Every structure is written in C-alpha cells, then in structure tokens.
Inverse folding.
C-alpha cells in the first residue's frame, strides 16, 4: 500500500468504522490497511470483546482519559446492576424516539418498584427488566440470551413467567388454557378452551422458547407446554408434592424437540453401528444399548414423536429405523410416501 492511500484512509472520518470505510475503499485495501495498523499503530488492551478478541485502540484517534479510567475501575458500593438514573434516562430517551406516550413520573414509579397499572407502564416495566438483564455480567450476549431477552421484555410472557415462578416456589397447582393454530394460521384455544390442571415443576429455556414442565392431570404424567401459548393462567389454592426422583435436566435432554406434542413416548430404534456416537451425543453414555447383529444395535429412547423427530430419523437415509411402537412406524411410512 502506498503512503498516500494509507494517509487518506487514516484521516477518513470512518476510520473507526470498517463497515463505513468499506463503502469507499476495496476490501483488499481495507485488509492491508488493518494489517498495517496492527503492526505499528494499534495498542492492545488487556480487555476482551464479545468474540474473545483483545480490544485495541488507536492513540491518534481515541484518547483515553485517566479520569474516566479511574471512574470505571473504582469499586462501586451499589448492589444495582444498572444505575437507576442511567436506566431512567435510557428509558426516557428510547420512548421519546419511539414516540411512546409516557411521563417521567411513570418511569420513576416503575423504577422505584411499584407495579404497572396500564399498558404504557407495562412497557416501561418490560424495558426495566431488559436493562437489568443485559447489564448483568453473567448474561453473555449470545443468540440464546437475545431470545431470552425478547421473551423477558414481552409483558404478557413476563407476567405469566412471574406467576408460574410463584406457583413453583409455593408448590401451588395452576390452571390454564392452551393455544394452537389452524391451517390458516388462526390462533385458537385447544380442545374448545379446556382448562389444564398442572403441578408446575420447572421453567426451562429450549429451542428459543420458555417451556413449563410439570405433572399434567389431563395426561396423567409429565408434560410440557410453551409459555407463550398459555392463556388465562391462574394459581390455584390446591397444593402439590413433587414427583419423587424427577430430574428436569434429564427430561429435557431426552427430547429431540419440544415444539409439537405435549408428552413423550418410548420409541425403539434400530441403528447402524456407525451411529453409536450420534445416539450417545443425544442421550448420553448411560443410555441402554442392545446388540442386534454384527452391523446394528437397538436403543429405546423417550422422545417427542413430532415432525422434527421423524425428520431427524429420515436424514440418516435408512441407517436409523423405527421398530416400535407401531403408531410411530406407520407415521414414518406415511411421511416417506409423501416424498414419492
């Protein structure tokens, strides 16, 4: 790279914004430019960015002020993850830009711990929870936590989760209705508005959604329900006892997916020996395996027999076959015929 081009790029107003720089210079020039900066201009800091790379600064562009560094490094006595004043200003600025009808007094009311009383205060409450979430160092910014943040700032879902948490802690049964969708994507209540009675055991985050897991009195066994599909959640006066030895983590790990059916079934599979690793990766080393012949083994798994499960079997092109129950065999054959 010649000196004139390097100087031009270094003095560009977008020098700290490689995307903006990319609108004016070829990618090959930008790559060479950044390599030159690394060799003699960047100063590496003992800090990591979200991808684990060292943060660097360009001393001729970004001046580090010691007074600011002292404030950042000084131990804080507050137990709050996000300063109340900073949170207030963030919410006010955001709602002003989005032209949301609110008052600063309502923001202060929610930040002081009072319950919201209308839709706008619900939005303030949701944003408060979101700011608390992203300011917690334990919540790394990943695709999963972004989805969690979305669920958390959804006022309807948040209040349902809050009610369920209360029921779990106090061991109270809950009652609710459940949504499903018609082929026209119309949202309707399942079983004509039937109210499920559940002993709530846990809330789990899986497949980008929160799931409620517990003992279903309709199914006479453990079942799970997507929280964003619950309606009319009520905490009942009746109490429950946890099922002895129930392991929430083991239950969720057994599920290939949690999108469709509400309960699991025992399914026996015939697998090629080459797929032992696949089975162990999904179900752990404690899964019981039985030799079938020199080339195959059988395994019985507890699985949600939904479309994702059959798709998972189908992708192995006959190296995994369903032996039982017959209903699952028939379903797999029906699916296979649709591709002929």
């Amino acid at each position: 790279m010649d000196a004139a081009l390097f100087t031009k790029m270094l003095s560009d107003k977008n020098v700290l914004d490689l995307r903006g720089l990319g609108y004016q210079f070829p990618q090959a020039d930008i790559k060479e430019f950044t390599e030159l900066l690394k060799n003699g201009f960047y100063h590496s800091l003992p800090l990591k960015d979200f991808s684990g790379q060292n943060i660097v600064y360009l001393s001729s562009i970004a001046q580090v002020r010691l007074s600011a560094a002292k404030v950042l490094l000084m131990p804080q006595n507050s137990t709050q993850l996000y300063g109340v004043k900073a949170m207030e200003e963030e919410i006010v600025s955001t709602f002003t830009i989005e032209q949301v009808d609110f008052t600063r007094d309502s923001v202060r009311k929610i930040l002081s711990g009072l319950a919201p009383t209308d839709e706008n205060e619900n939005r303030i409450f949701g944003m408060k929870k979101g700011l608390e979430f992203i300011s917690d160092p334990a919540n790394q910014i990943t695709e999963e936590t972004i989805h969690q943040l979305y669920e958390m700032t959804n006022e309807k879902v948040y209040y349902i989760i809050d009610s369920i948490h209360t029921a779990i802690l106090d061991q109270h049964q809950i009652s609710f209705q459940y949504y499903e969708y018609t082929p026209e994507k119309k949202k309707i209540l399942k079983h004509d508005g039937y109210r499920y009675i559940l002993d709530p055991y846990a809330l789990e985050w899986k497949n980008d959604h929160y799931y409620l897991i517990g003992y279903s009195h309709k199914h006479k066994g453990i079942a799970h329900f997507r929280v964003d599909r619950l309606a009319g959640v009520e905490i009942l006066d009746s109490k429950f006892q946890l099922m002895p030895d129930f392991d929430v983590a083991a239950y969720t790990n057994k599920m290939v997916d949690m999108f469709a059916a509400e309960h699991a079934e025992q399914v026996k599979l015939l697998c090629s020996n080459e797929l032992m690793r696949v089975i162990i990766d999904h179900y752990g080393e404690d899964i019981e395996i039985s030799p079938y012949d020199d080339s195959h083994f059988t395994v019985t798994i507890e699985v949600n027999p939904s479309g994702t499960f059959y798709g998972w079997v189908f992708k192995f092109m006959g190296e995994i076959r369903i032996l039982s129950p017959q209903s699952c065999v028939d379903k797999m054959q029906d699916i296979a015929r649709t591709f002929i």
Observations:
- The longest helix spans residues 119-135.
